[in-house]
Structures are given as C-alpha cells and as structure tokens.
Amino acid sequence: PATAATVVVTAAKMVDVLAGKEVDRPQVTITDGRITAVGHQGDAVPEGAKTIDLGNRTLLPGLIDMHVHLTSDPTLSGYQSLNYTDSFWMVVGVANARKTLEAGFTTVRNVGSDHYDDVALKEGIEHGYIPGPRIVPATYILGVTGGHGDFTEFPPSIETPSDNIANSPDAFRALVRKVHKYGAEVIKVAMTGGVLSKGDSVGAEQVSPAEIQAIVDEAHRLGMRVAVHAHGTEGINDALRAGVDTIEHASLADEESFKLAKAHGAWFDMDIYDDDYILAEGAKNGVFPESMAKEKMVGLKQRQTFRAAHAAGVKMLFGTDGGVYPNGFNARQFATMVQWGMTPIEAIQASTKNAAEALDKTRDVGAIEVGRYGDLIAVDGDPLQDVVLLQHPSFVMKGGEVVKAPQ
Ligand code: ARG
Q: Under CATH, what is the fold of the domain 6-61+364-404?
C-alpha cells in the first residue's frame, strides 16, 4: 500500500516477557504488521494512526503453543475416527485454527497431521481465506513400523498408509528430505511408545540411536529442528544424546535426562494438563481401554517429572497436545504448570519468550518488541496474580489486525 497502516495500542499494564516484569501504561505502535515502537502513554502518536485503548486491561504478547494437532478432535478417538472421510480432518482443522487464534494463540507448532493438512492450513491462513494462527508445520509424524506414528489398530489383511514409516537410518533420512520437500518446517519423530497408540508400550524405545542420529543430522542440515515424542527414559536420553531440540511429553525423564538436556540446550515440552481431560472424558470419547490404562501409569508421573525438570533448570516450553483435548482450551494448562512448580511469569515465558527461541523465531514472535509482529492479547486483570485469566483474553491482535475486540 502507498500509505503505511499504523495502529497504536494502549492499556493499563503490559507483561514484558523479556525482562520478566510488568510495565505500567504501555503504548505499542504497529506499522504494516510489525511493532515499530514500545513506550508509554503520552509518547507521540504517528499522524493518521488508528488508536485502540484497552483501558484497565493487561497486554501480553500473542501466546505460542508448541504442541498442537489442529486436525484432530479428541471426541472422535480410537475407532470412532473411522466414521469420517479423509478430508473431514481438514475441515476440523479449519474450525480449530479459528478457535486457537481466538483463544489468544497467535502461533502454533503443529506436530503431526496426515496428508500435509497442516501445510494447507498454513497456506489458507496466509492467503487470508480463513482465520488462524501462524503455523510451523511438521507434516507427518515420522516413526517405525508398529510404532506410535504407525496405524496399529488394524489386522494384517487391512493395508494402512506408510508414508511416514521407516526402519533404517537411510530410510529416515529420505523421509526427512521428503517431508521437507512438501512443506515441513520442523521434524516430529515418535521415539518411544505412546499413550493413545494401540499395541505399544508407553516406555519402550522405538527408534534406534543410529536412526535418530540420521534424522537429527539431516534435519539440521536442512535448517529444521527436531521435536521428539518420548515418554520412556531410554528414548528420551538417546534422543538428547543425538542432539534433538525438543522433547515432547518427557514423562519418564530422569536425572540423567535433565543433565543431558541442559548440556545440549534442549527444551522439554510437557503436556501436563491432558491427564485431567483423558481420565475424565477418554472412555466416552472412544480412547482404547489399554490407552486409559497407560494414561493412569504416566499421568501423575509426568507432572512429578515436570516439577523436577523445572527445579533442575531444564528449559521449559508450553505445549498442550491440543487435539488430544479440545483445541481452543490451550490456556488451561497455565494453571497446571503453576500448580506443579512454575511462577506465573515462568509459565507465560514458556509460551512466549522460550517458545520463540525454540522455534528460532525471536525476530518474529514471542515478545512485544520492536521488529516482531504485532501479535498481542489483553486480559481483564493481572495474569501474574492469576494465570486463569489467560483462558479468556478479551482482545486478540495478529500482525496488527484485530481478531477479537472487547465487548
Ligand atoms: N499424544 C500423547 C500420547 O499418545 C498424549 C499423552 C497424553 N497424556 C499425558 N499424560 N500427557 O502419548
């Protein structure tokens, strides 16, 4: 456009996630989608700028969820998912993208979807067809035959897709190259068994040390980071030794894992709210009985591990596994994180400052700072006193565009 579009946002307070403190009477200027000034009310307002005063509210950077599955619906778990056609999940993704953005999550890392659906969602959002967060897509979850990333709930006579399955270092290299070719910006690997997958043991290692090494080398060579689904101790530790970037779930991580994570600068991304939802709703949603049993084995343990990992100084992220519980309720996990040892500012930094670092996007997202996108939310009160406020942002802005305004 010939004239720059400038918008100036003011509020009573702002959470400065880089400094780890609140600032009074902030004024944030955004021009053509990026932040151009961060100051105080009373500073000069560029001529012709649109102004938005959020009154008594507190401004925060748009939130980031590092572990979602936008194209999943937890109420259609287990065999219930088979009642729908393949492209149905794309429709689910379109609806969930809007819910996630309106919930204040302006960026998500989508760590697993079939058919490159997350790439299509990203393209649709970027071209303005549908509302949604910025998406960092992983496309398929890579894994071994019979592992957490495979379709293990069918008899041998029913052939299942194997676009994401490999069983040797070279075959995994080829898969990394293939998903990168079709739009993956991060690699997701199912390193150990899972809770919701049928027929595997949640703690067992599935990908070999040589295979994860090949994946990490190839992904890093292509400029991508590696997110590893791992509940089991051996799998977590072998993945960390191979140089992976983020450990998802991390349920059975031990002292050795904490040491390795710190030595390698890896992050833990632990979905510690999910246990409540799965135990309450899982059976009704179609979750396999064996998965309910696995959840009972790891749920509490994972929370204890979260507390210990944080206390040991492991870098922590905010990732919910949205899709395993309803997308749009991502912010519920903040209270669980505070309950299990974080301060409110630490929980907020996990979903802003730290998340941007783990995405390698500190120039774009994760803080209200000059140069980054104008991705802002506001809550009605002080989130450092009560993180539950984050569940109901009354204002959401993405790239300087208002997504949700106070009623
Ligand atoms: N996608 C994960 C899995 O199937 C979900 C784990 C949820 N449970 C938990 N306690 N975080 O393994």
A: Urease, subunit C; domain 1 (2.30.40)
